[in-house]
Amino acid sequence: MKLYAKKSISGFIVCLVLVLLLSTLPITASAVNTSYYVDAVSGSDSNNGKSVDTAWKTLAKVNSTTFGAGDKILFKRGSSWTGTLYPKGSGASGNPITIDAYGSGALPVINGNGKYYTTSDPIDSAVYLRSQSHWVISNIEVTNKTTTKAERYGIHIDGSGGQNTGITIRNTKVHDVTNDGNAGEHARIAGIAVWARSWGDSFSNVLVEGNEVYNIGSTAIYVNGMKWVGSAVNNVIRNNYVHEIGGDGIMTVDCESPLAEYNVANTTHNQSTVACVAMWPFSCNNAVFQYNEAYNTKTTADGQGFDSDYMSRGTIFQYNYGHDNEGGFFLICSEPTTWDGKQTGFNDGTIVRYNIGQNNANWQFVLWTNITNTSIYNNVVSIKAGNSSPVIWSGSRNNLWYPDKTTFKNNIFYHNGTGGYLLEKLTGLVFDYNIFYGYHASSEPYDAHKLTNNPKFVKPGGAGLGITSCDAYKLQIGSPALNSGVLITNNGGKDYFGNPVSATAAPNRGAYNGPGIDSSTTNSTTTYTTTSISLPSVIPSDTTTTTSATTATSNPPTYSSPFKTANGQMWGLTAGGMSYEQFSTAFVTQPGITITVLSKEGKAITSGKIGTGMKVKVSENNAPSEEFSVILYGDIDGNGTIDVIDMVKMKMHILKINYLQGAMYTAANTDRDSKVTVNVFDMVVLKKSVLKINQIDQN
Fold it and tell me: What is the pTM of this model?
C-alpha cells in the first residue's frame, strides 16, 4: 500500500509540473479556419472563444494563442481593450489569419496606453506582429497616446530575420500616436509601419488600404520592403486618408515597383522641424505614385506635396494633384553619398507627368544634388499671386554633384507670382514646348518652342478638394496649347483626365489632352479654399463639390441627353430607376458617336437596371472621348433601385462601421447639400423615398 501511495504521489507531482509548464507556453489553436470571438465585457478567458456566447475576454488570452491558416480573431464592436494585441502564428497563401470586428456599433478599440520601444522590450505598439506572414488586420481602431514622446507605433509589423509576405492592413482607424517627428530615425516611426527592426527581414505582398490615420507625431504610413534582404515586390499603399500628421505622410522604402495610389494627405509636417514631405519613395526601384492628392503640407523644410528621393531609380509620379503646400509642389533629390559614405548617392530616371499643382507656395520644383535623367512633362503649375520664390530651384548639398540631363517639355506655367528661375550649375538641361504665361522673369529659361499666350484654362485657380476637381485646368476651344506639344516616347498613354495620348500624334501642352472645351456649355469647378470644406471621415476618392451642370460636350455638340454631367459624373436619372433601354435611348448622337454602358465590374451591358457606380463611355470614331460615373441618388448599393438595403448601408456609414466611398458616397448625399456630406438628414430623405412619401431630387 505504501509503494502504491508513493507511485501515486510521484505521478501527481509529474502531472502538476507538466500542467504548470504548459500553462506558460502559447496555446495552439485547435483547428484551422476557426473563428474566435473576444468580448471585453461579457467574455471569459475560461471559454473556448468559438462563438459569440463563449467569447474570450482579454488581450492576454489572444496573445497566448498560436493561430493557424484561415483562423479569424473577431473583436466585439463597441468594446475596447488596453494593452498590446500580439497574437502568434502565420497563415498561408490564400488562407490568411484575420483580425476583424463583429457585432454592431463603433469599431473595437485597441489602446496601446503609450507602449513604446526599449532595448529590453522591443514590443512598441498597440498592434504588433513579428516575423509573421499572411495576416489581414481590418476594421479596428488603434490608438497609442500618452503625455511624452517616444518611439511608439499604432500598428507595427516587425521582423527578426527572414522573409515576410501577405500582410494586409485595411479599413482601420489609427490615431493619436504620441511619437517624435524630430527623432533621428523619425521617418520610420509611424502610425502604421511595416519595417523589421532587425534590418534583416524583407516584406512583399503588403497592402495598406482604406485606412484613416491622423494625429500622429511623426509619419502616417511607412512600408520598408528591404529589397537588399529578399523579395520586396507587390507592396501597395492605396486609398488611405492621412491628416494632422507631425512628419511625413506616406513613404515607400527599399521596395521593388511599389504602388501608392488614390491616397489623400491633408496637413502633414505640422510638428516636425526637420525635412518632411507628404508622399515619397526612398531607395526604391520603379515606384509609381498616381492619383494622389497632397495639400496643406507645412513648413519650408522641404514641405512639398511630392518627392522622388535618395537612391531611387525609375520613379513615376503621374495624375497627382498637389495644392496649398507651403514647401512647394515637387522635390527631386539625392544625398551626395550612400548612408555609409562608401558610394556616390544618386536618383536616376524620375518621370513627373500629367500632374496638376495649384497655389503651392515656395518652390514649384526643387532639383537637388546628383539627380540624373529626370523628365518633367505635361504638367500644369498654377502659381498664386504674392509668391516671390523661384519657380524652379536647383543646387547641391556638397557643391560637387549637381543635377544632370533634366528636361521640361509640354508643361504650362501659369505664373501670377514674381519669382524667377534659379538653375545653378545644371548640365544637360533642356526646356522645350512649354508655355510660360503671366510673369516673365529675366531668368526665365530659353525654350526654342516656347509659347507665352494665355493657355485659356476653363477656370485657372478654380480647382478645389479632390483629384477630380481639376476640370478648371482643361483647355478651352482656341487654346494655343491644343495639339501644339512635342511627342514624348513612352508617354503613359493617357492624360490626367483619362483622355488617350497618342504615340504618334502631337499632344496638347499641359495635363489635359482632350478636345477644346466650349466654356458656355461647361460649368467651371466651384472656387473655394481648403479651409472652408467640411471633410467626411474618409475622403472619397472620386467625389467633388459641384453646383448644377449641363452636359459637357465639344463644340459643335456630338451628342445630347437629359442627364447632367460634371467632374466625371453623370446624374439626373429618373428617380424610380431606369432600365438600360430607357437610359440608352435617352441619348441623341451624331454619326460616329458610340455610347457604351459598363457595369461596376467594367463589363459592357445591354440589359438590366442602371445603377450608381456604372460607367458611361463616349467614343468618337471608335476613339474614347469621355467617361462618366453614374450617380442615382439614394441607390447606394448600385443595383439601380432605392430600397432598405441602401438605408442599411447609409446607417453603417453614419455609425462609422463601414465608410462609403467614391460614387456610392456621392449617391448617399440624398438631401443634395452643397457640402456633399452624409448624415442623418440624408437618412430622413432616403427613408421618405423608400416609404414612397417623397422622391429624391435627382437634378
Answer: 0.73
